[in-house]
Structure to design on (106 residues):
């Protein structure tokens, strides 16, 4: 029974974050093309559906992870997620630097 409730919660959060992205694009179509580097995963993502947590801007995918973690009491502060995503963020940043250097040699 508890697992069913968790799955329902996750599904509601997923729908909510998807709707945030749609709403942002409807309100400001440019947000579908404006990009930023997510402070959580390190990837370059579109602004639509992103959220600011304290001074950290998270992409829509990381917002989903954050809100799910909060709802399931797996974390209490956004820094918890940032710490857990540190390796992914580092790898993404490293790869983006490596690819830029590789591409500039062509």
């Amino acid at each position: 029974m508890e697992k069913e409730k968790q799955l329902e919660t996750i599904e509601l959060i997923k729908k909510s974050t998807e709707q945030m992205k749609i709403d942002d694009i409807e309100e400001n179509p440019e947000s579908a093309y404006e990009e930023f580097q997510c402070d959580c995963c390190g990837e370059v993502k579109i602004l639509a559906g992103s959220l600011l947590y304290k001074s950290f801007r998270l992409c829509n995918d990381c917002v989903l992870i954050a809100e799910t973690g909060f709802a399931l009491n797996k974390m209490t502060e956004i820094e918890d997620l940032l710490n857990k995503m540190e390796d992914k963020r580092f790898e993404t940043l490293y790869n983006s630097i490596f690819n830029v250097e590789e591409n500039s040699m062509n």
About this structure: Residues 16 and 35 are 21 Å apart (CA to CA).
